[in-house]
Amino acid sequence: MNQRVSLPTDLTDLTLAPVALALSRRLAEVGALVPGELFRAIAASTDHEPVPGRRGELLIQMLRRDVDLREWKLDWSPSGLRMSHHDHELVLGASPFLRDFLSEDHRP
Fold first, then answer.
1. Triad 51, 53, 57: Cα angle to 5°
2. Is 1 domain-assigned?
């Protein structure tokens, strides 16, 4: 299998590792919370209650707090937190607890 490796092309690409490591650490910390603690942490960090329909957005706001994203964009994929920049993409795995928490956004 001969796969071509994409080399960094700019400063944003070079900053992937520190940004990914910071977000991975935050995901692990948040994933270790129990449900009540997570709700309180999101509310304290964002000044909004994590109601269905806004949980994903508010959780990203909390995770990115004090993290310089260096132009990386964040959103959710089925398996975790997606970081993207132009044609580069990386998904940081989220715990089953966080995936369940986020799936509540899509339940009636």
1. 90
2. no
Tell me how many domains the chain contains.
1
Question: What one-character-per-residue DSSP string does the chain give?
Answer: --PPPPPP-SHHHHTHHHHHHHHHHHHHHHHTS-HHHHHHHHHHHHSS---TTTHHHHHHHHHHTT---TT-EEEEETTEEEEEETTEEEEEE--HHHHHHHHGGG--
Give residue 84's domain range. Answer: 12-106
Is residue 6 domain-resident? no
pLDDT value, residue 63: 97
In a domain, 79, yes or no: yes
Residue 32 lies inside a defined structural domain of this protein: yes
Q: What is the pLDDT of residues 55-81, one digit of tens each?
A: 999 999 999 999 999 889 999 999 999
Is the predicted pLDDT of residue 44 greater than 50, yes or no? Answer: yes
